[in-house]
Amino acid sequence: MGCECEKNETKETLSRRNFLSKFSVGIGALIGAVLAFPLIIAMLDPVTRNTGKKWRQIGLASNFEVGKTQLVTFKNASPYKWSGKIAQSAAYIRRVENDEFVAFSVNCSHLGCPVRWEEKPELFMCPCHGGVYYKDGSRAAGPPPRGLYKYPVRISGEHLEIQTDAIPITDITA
Amino acid sequence: MKKQLIKIWQWIDDRGGVSDLLKPLKTHLVPPNVKWNYVWGSATLFCLLVQIVTGISLGFLYQPSADVAYQSLQYIENDAVLGSFIRGLHNWGASAMIFLMGLHLIRVYINAAYKYPREMSWITGVLLMGLTIIMAFTGQLLRWDNNGVWSAVVAAEQIGRIPIFGDSISYFLLGGKTINGETLNRFFSMHVFLFPAILFMIVSYHVYLVFKNGISEPPKAGRLLNPKTYRKWYQDLLDKKGVPFFPDAIWRDAIFSLFVLVVLLILAFFVGAPALTSPPDLTNVQANPKPDWYFTWIFAIFALMPRQLESYVMFLAPLIGGIFLFSIPFLSNKGERSPLRRPWAIAGVVLVILAIGSLWYVGHQAPWHPRFNAKPLSEYSAVPKASEKVKKGIELYNTEGCLYCHKIGDQGGIRGPELTDVQNRLTKEEMIIRIVNGSENMPAYGGSLSKEELENIVAFLLQDSKSKNYKSKNNVEN
């Protein structure tokens, strides 16, 4: 009879068992997929929600001296209600000319550590691995693969405004 | 009464199958010479137990919220009964787990215990190592002080070097495009729920494999492993000379675990966990993010790597390293197991230890880190009876940031060469060229120093008597 049946097995019970095995495994996979769904959704929620970009006032334009660089802080695009202080980001504003402002990210382009502005030598220095940038944000020394990232800034009435942005992530090609 | 208790126990054992469950421990045979070199894995597992217990304890005290986590840590550290001790134990438990895991890995590699039929033990072991490292890193972040927050940024940047998907993965980990109220909770959920769950599953499987394939017998030079006959040979060995795992082998594990515990208790009590730095604040740019000791060597690579290669190394090195580790049992799964006949295995291990050791040493020293808090040179300590010009030069040396990277006497950073005796190495012109143009690791000062300032600095650098020790030296002008 071509049936490789074991004890108590006929061709019919065999095909029935065959079907039931596949059926049970299939149900298991379905249950797994259903349960994985909320997990994945929950993990993705903070990433996929639309935060957009916002313009934030960072002070009167007249507070910034021409040729000087100073640290400003501003709120991220759409922080959670419970974020507290962590919703604040910082940037360096440099007034290049009377009507020309530049905003640099405080994150070193190497590994994101906060660079410090050294007033006298007019350099940004990174504590982590010794990256150094000139006052215009270009790389001066050390491991950074590129200059400092910039935020858009604009003058609105008397106020200087900065546009919120993501933490800059340096990619492999930089 | 005693009879009653025995009866109750018999009922539990009959219906609950306790003896049957534990029987494999008693009947499982191991080779006779399984001695002290076999305690590393069980000690690593023991550390995991310590981490579970102390982790749950901390869970009762810690508030996983971006806003108040730091305060709850302060509470744990300063107010909670035994809080700082528990935190210390969790911290040192993690360190010990990483350390013992490393020894376990080295032991298995040197004795080639990964060869047939234990390839899966090796593979799951490599997975466990990855998970343990992830646990260590996510745990560091939960400290959620300024160092912890910035560490999250640094991690995101490293992951950002993965081609194409790098930034998406980074933002996925951070829980948004910036560090935010969700970031801490995310790392908390990963550290406390997600990765432990995966870790427990793989640990169980890893231990199950030890029972299934048996503990590898200590290798003997010249006794070759033949996959065709090994299982039968191993079974014969056990039948003839095997001893029960419990208690003939496990007593050493118990003693060593106790020893580990005592060391951990001492460290937790007397050293404790790393002190918390300032509160988490991304607008506080005075932070100096540093990883815990077991990552210091990686941190060092990032400072020392040639700049043009670095982004590729950041991505490719872990990838190639991981692939290599996984492939070890496939490169060779039979033949000689004894380290005496596998000199290259030993050489490889020694090389890796030396490399990591020296990177660790440099990382600890962090010469590339500008010493922002270096004590400024005073006239006296720098040059006695200095001229006006030289005095101005000293002032500029302090304020222009030269001091952060260049040592004079015993003050200043060590990024660049020490300049105490620079007048013997460079001429005035050479100094000017270097200061004006900079170099790979030094900014060019041509744009920011006036001609006069430059001359003042050089006038100072040309002095023979820049350090207090001047008298003891015998510098003669060239």
Q: From the structure provided, what is the oligomeric state, counting identical versus distinct chains?
A: heterodimer
Say which CATH homologous superfamily of the largest domain in chain A is assigned: Rieske [2Fe-2S] iron-sulphur domain
Which stretches of chain A of 5+ consecutive residues score pLDDT under 50? none
Quick one: biggest sheet of chain A?
4 strands, antiparallel
Whole-number average pLDDT of chain B?
A: 92
Q: How far from one another are the termini of chain B?
A: 100 Å
Strand content of chain A: 25-35%
CATH class division of the largest domain in chain B: Mainly Alpha
Count of the separate structural domains of chain A: 2
Describe the protein:
The complex is a heterodimer of chains A (174) and B (478). With 174 residues, chain A is an alpha+beta fold. Chain A has two domains: 10-49; 55-163, Rieske [2Fe-2S] iron-sulphur domain (Rieske Iron-sulfur Protein), CATH 2.102.10.10. Chain A is built from one helix and eleven strands. Chain A has one helix spanning 11-48; strands at residues 55-60, 69-75, 88-97, 100-105, 116-118, 123-125, 132-134, 139-141, 150-151, 153-156, 159-163. In chain A, the strands form three sheets. A four-stranded antiparallel β-sheet of chain A has the order 2-3-4-9, with no helix packed on it. In chain A, strands 5-6-7-8 form a four-stranded antiparallel β-sheet, with no helix packed on it. In chain A, strand 3 (88-97) and strand 4 (100-105) form a beta hairpin. In chain A, 39% of the residues are buried. With 478 residues, chain B is mainly α. Chain B folds into two domains: 31-365, Cytochrome Bc1 Complex, Chain C (Up-down Bundle), CATH 1.20.810; 379-472, Cytochrome Bc1 Complex, Chain D, domain 2, CATH 1.10.760. Chain B contains 20 helices and two strands. Chain B has helices at 2-16, 18-27, 40-59, 69-78, 83-110, 119-142, 146-159, 166-174, 183-213, 230-241, 245-270, 296-304, 307-331, 343-365, 379-382, 388-399, 402-405, 422-425, 428-437, 451-461; strands at residues 29-30, 243-244. The longest helix of chain B has 31 residues, at 183-213. Chain B is elongated. Chains A and B meet through helix 1, strand 3 and strand 5 of A and helix 7, helix 8, helix 9, helix 12 and helix 13 of B.
